[in-house]
């Protein structure tokens, strides 16, 4: 049985590193492409909330978008620092999903009922715990 030489191992490791770096580069490029749209959506919801008949709902939606953006930037910041932060990255992934589900709940309830009830409920009870 032949063992791989150190040169073969080094070449294989370099290939894996190149694949991982390529994936991270593409992921960061994708993130930059959608980040401006995400920020634009947050600005538009915030602007609407000032003149809206549903200020609590608009405020809740804008706050959730902002929180998701902050968490996402934290995840990418930790990911760029290296593999020693993988647990923290995985840990922050769950709150992003939770905020997204809260956002969808408030949004769909608003679309269904056309009232400020769920936005006010979120601000009153849920935001306090975050």
Describe the protein's architecture and organization.
The chain is mostly helical. The chain is 85% helix and 0% strand. It has four helices and no strands. The protein has helices at 6-51, 55-81, 86-113, 117-126. The radius of gyration is 21 Å and the shape is elongated. The model has no long low-confidence stretch (mean pLDDT 81).
Distance between the termini: 58 Å
Q: Using the CA coordinates, give the radius of gyration.
A: 21 Å
Shape: elongated
Return the average pLDDT rounded to an integer.
Answer: 81
How would you summarize what this structure contains?
About 85% of the residues lie in helices and about 0% in strands.
Provide tags for this entry.
mainly alpha; 130 residues; 4 helices; single chain
Q: How is this fold's topology laid out?
A:
Layout lengths: L5 H46 L3 H27 L4 H28 L3 H10 L4
